[in-house]
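User: AMP-dependent synthetase/ligase domain-containing protein. Structure?
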Amino acid sequence: MGCGVSRAHQFMTYSVEKPDLTENNQGQTTVRRNVKYKDEFLMIPQPGITTLQEMLKNSVAKYGNQPCLGKYEGDNYKFMSYHQVNEEAINLGNGMSNLSLIREVQEYKHYKLKLIGVFSKNRREWMILDWANILYGYTMVPFYDTLGPDAIPFILDQTNIETMFISGDSTKSLLQCKEKYKLKNLVLFDPLSEQQIFELKNKGYQLFKFEEVIENGKKSNIQLAQVLPTSIFTLCYTSGTTGNPKGVMISHDNIISSIASTLQTDAKIDSTDVHISYLPLPHIMERWLILNLLFSGASIGFYRGDPNLLKEDIQKLRPTIFASVPRLYNKFYDGIKAKINEVTGFKKQLAERAIRVKLENLRLEAKYTSALYDKAFQGVRDLFGGRCRLMVTGSAPIRQEVIDFLKIAACCPILEGYGQTESLLSFSTAVWDPMSGHVGGPAANTEFKLVDVPEMNYTSLDIIDGIKAPRGEICLRGPSVFKGYYKDPEKTAEVIDAAGWLHTGDIGLITENGGVKIIDRKKNIFKLQQGEYIAPEKIEAIYNGVQGVTETFIYGDSLQSQIVAIIVPQKEFVEKYAAEKQIQGDFQHLCNNPDIINFFKKNINDYGRANKLNSLEIAKLIYLEPQPLQTFGCLTSTLKLQRHLAKKVFANQIEQLYKNQA
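Assistant: Predicted structure:
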């Protein structure tokens, strides 16, 4: 993979048009598909594998004695084989049945779901439970701390879960919930203190040890469930952006078709690969990746749960595949560049030349390695364990200078992917492509189109610098699109139309080679660099309640880790405060005064926390605008904020705030 390609590959194509006479192309582009699968979707990875249950059976038969799931024990990683994991999962499933931990069947539409919760950081036991659920037809509902104290009871109420597998540190969040609803059984991954046990039992929970459930399962042999392709594999709750979270119903055939499509990408996963799992398993990206690895017989080692030990975990495991999100890649980038800047003399000249030459080769020929200059980056390769052959990034966009530098410094490709919880992998880049800053072409199980968004001036007929550049909302269709939001048909109908198109809310541009570049967001939500969604309207409503604030515009950039707040302050309030503090100047100058800006920051922080805003929703980057927003023409006739216009109006201020951030 790292041998590079010729310049001719620059002109390869990601997608082709698929004219569809049933589609009305007015106000939208023609439907496009993967260039290799333009006539039919790729549905399964191989004959006989239509469910995850069939997939795991196949992997055990094929890779039985090979290392499967690893855990840090003693001073290194120790692995259970595919046979051992499968046996433990069978015993766990038997024990869950014997102890009546799974009894209630939730019926929704034509689905009959046996739901079970899990609340823990990544660990081997988490995936053994997932494996058992696949074999016995149970549907996993993952919980995680960033859902917030209000969301956890909401999910418990909506799902009527009776049993949850839980780690010791996650019991704290559970105890903070006022209502437990039907949840009564907790299966503990970790030993607890006497005080923890007392508090949980006092709240009415029945406690079981994970190991005890497995031992109990050895007493019997329950028949595996009949799992269908349409059976629901998981309810993946998205962290709510406006109101309560939504339970995304993902089926076995959703995942299976996505695994089949991944085989057609340049990832080329095989049984020699090793992966370190530290990205949160409740988010679909990491779980999807692990299932791909299990199909191919690869090995997965789990970090120890402490981000401060991740570097050491990587050195011990030495992964061949490394997946991350832009926020962490940015940290690697900053750290590596800082070390290079410390070098002086001949070594600095050599490093600068190596960077310059390798970047030229990357951008001209998609070449990742150099017999002459790779030695200059051995320290970077060692940072990732020394044998990483492929990196993956997703969740949010990544800056071009960051990804290009890491490609030449790590001496391996970095594939950029795009997908949502509702669609799994939808787009990915290719090794042959020398250009970064886009998400590549559609997966082999996906077709897409762009629909005009006239209110934002994005259309399928757009021309930029004399070149056709169709723009619009990305709509997806294919076997990986989710089955709907659990018990929420209204929200489902908002995103999936009558023709089966998933409306993503993301604005895309079709590149010359048939790829897609994400350029904007249609809905009034956005992601920060951490991959967390922000709902600006909710934040603005709270900020407008802060003393001295009359109007607010919240902006966030997915390449940045903080939000920006454009605040229109109340003139009399500012002038009174300035007089008390003996600050001189007219209103314009007062709005630029650091002491007054810091005063508003403190008020916003105090009021925001009192109104349960999290740290990402409390702005540290604030610009005080003396003129009302209506002055700039970015409000509608009904005084609603037009965000795309406000973004243009305050572009310079936003840029300056991000540039000057600490």
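Confidence is low (pLDDT under 50) at residues 1-10. The longest helix spans residues 345-365.
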